[in-house]
Amino acid sequence: MSHCQPGQAPVQSQLGKNSAPGQSGPVVTAGVASSHIRAPGCPRARVITVSDRSFAGERGDRSGPLLANLLAELGYLVDGPVVVPDDVAAITAELYRSIESEYDLVFTTGGTGVAPRDVTPEATLAVVEREVPGIAELLRSSVAQRVPTSWLSRGIAGTAGHTLVVNLAGSTGAVRDGISALSPLLGHVISQLHGGDHHEA
Q1: The CATH number of the domain where 101 resides is what?
Q2: How many domains would you assign to the chain?
Q3: 48: containing domain
Q4: Which of 64, 144, 156, 158 has the most CB atoms around its CB within 10 Å?
Q5: Nearest to 48 by CA among 89, 129, 109
Q6: Is 63 left (phi over 0), alpha (psi -120 to 50) or beta?
């Protein structure tokens, strides 16, 4: 798999700026921000923020831009974040759109808890074809000793076609911890989804 110059500082000032609630921000890659970038061979990721308040413009989206930047630093060509409300239909529509656009990775942030409006896992279950429970277990267990409330996250992970969908909680801390835990696995998952061989034991 070719790389998109990981490790360079992504452009932050343009990410999510000048976008109306519910609109996606520009595509971000390491060191570049543009709404028209498409680099052949670069793994592609999309970020979806799920939040009623952010969608309504009552609160700024912090976890989505951070997630996009962290993925860009790993070398992914990132689209978003797009902000949607805590609504199953709205979330599933964006997930289907992402899968149809053949993104390698789709990360959601927000809506994974036990509050009545936390419906991101339900929306994701309606879209994925196969669950990958180990990813969700890793996200919870990797920080449980330090953040006991991580056990309350109902986030899931699964695949649809060649796309991996992962739910992260809606805090910046959860985003940082989640990407830290998953970064060693993502390249292998993408390879597997595109028919790559298993690593030898």
Answers
A1: 3.40.980.10
A2: 1
A3: 27-31+42-193
A4: 64
A5: 109
A6: alpha
Sign of CA dihedral 173, 178, 179, 183: positive
pLDDT digits (tens, 9 = 90+) for 129-168: 999 999 999 999 999 999 999 999 999 999 999 999 999 9
In whole angstroms, give the CA distance from residue 91 to residue 97. Answer: 10
**Is 150 domain-assigned?**
yes
Whether residue 12 lies inside any domain: the answer is: no
What are 142's two structure tokens? 């990797």
Strand segments, DSSP code E, in 12-132 are 27-29, 32-34, 44-50, 77-84, 105-109, 130-131
Does this model's pTM top 0.90? Answer: no
Asked if residue 46 belongs to a domain, the reply is: yes
Return the amino acid letter for 156. Answer: I
Query: What is the CA angle 176-190-93, rounded to 5?
Result: 75
The 10s digit of each residue's pLDDT in 97-123 is 999 999 999 999 999 999 999 999 999
Tell whether 96 is covered by a domain: yes
pLDDT, one tens digit per residue, over 56-68 is 999 999 999 999 9
Q: Residue 122 has which token pair?
A: 């339900």
Q: For all residues of the chain together, what is the average pLDDT?
A: 84
